Amino acid sequence: LATTLAVSPDQYQFEDLTLESAALMARGKGSFEPETQNLIAELNADIAAQQDGIYGQLFANGTGQIEVRLVRDGQKLAAERLIVGSGNLNAELAAELTADGLGAKGNVGFAKLSAFDPRLEGQAKFDLEASGALNDPQVKLQLASQGVRLEGEPLEDLSGTIEGGLVKGIKLALNATYRQSPVELQAEYIQDEDGRKLLRDVKAYVPGGRAEGALVIANDGLLEGSFTLDVADLKELAPLLLQEGLAGNLNGKLVLDASD
Length: 260
Fold this sequence. Notes:
It contains 2 helices and 17 strands. It is mostly beta strands. It has a 17-stranded antiparallel beta sheet, with no helix packed on it. The longest helix has 6 residues, at about 55-60. The radius of gyration is 23 Å and the shape is globular.
C-alpha cells in the first residue's frame, strides 16, 4: 500500500494510491473534508485470473476490471459509477442513498454462461431499477437473453421480470420455449407485518409437468406450505434442471408442516 497524501486544515487529499497483492492491483485517488465529512474517491482495480471458484466463473477464468467512483456530499452517499468488465460478468451501475431513500439504475450481463456450467450456453442480461424508502424499496429487474442452450437444446425467447416492493409484493415472471413447449414460472413474494415471508401463487409449467403452491417462511426459519405436483415425464424435465438419470412420473402433494 502506497499513496501521496496532502493535508490542509479543511481537506485531506490523496493521489497515486496503490494497492498490490498476488490477486489484485488497484489504483486510486480522492479527498476527504473532516468538517463536513464529505468524500470523493475513485478506484480502478484489476483482479488476477483464477481458474476455479466463484471468481473463475464470474470472470470466465480471465482477469476482471473494476472501476468505482464514490461520493459523500451532505446527506447523500452515492456510487456514481460502478463498472465491471470481464470475459463473462459485465456491469454498469449507479446508486445513491439519501434521507428520502435510495435510487439505483444499471445493468448486469453474463456473456458466457458456460463459465458457470459447461452444459449451459448463451448470454443473459439484467436491467435493474430501484427506488423508494429503505424499508420498502420498489425494484424492477428485467431479464433478456441470447442463444441460451441447455445441454445443446435451445431455450428460446427466455425473458423475465421481477417487479414490486416488500409491502405490496414482488412479482416474478419467467417465460421461455423449450422443445417447442412453453416454460412459465410465476410467483409473488411478500413480507408480512409480523415479519413472516410469504411465497405465494407459485405456478410452474414446464414440458412434461406442472407445479402449484405456496410457502411461508417463519421468523425462526421454519417452512410451512404445500405444492401440488403433476409431472408426467421426469426424463423430459431433466435437462431443464441440468440433471441426468431422471425417469418416471411424479404426482401428488408435497406438504411442509412447521414444528418446533
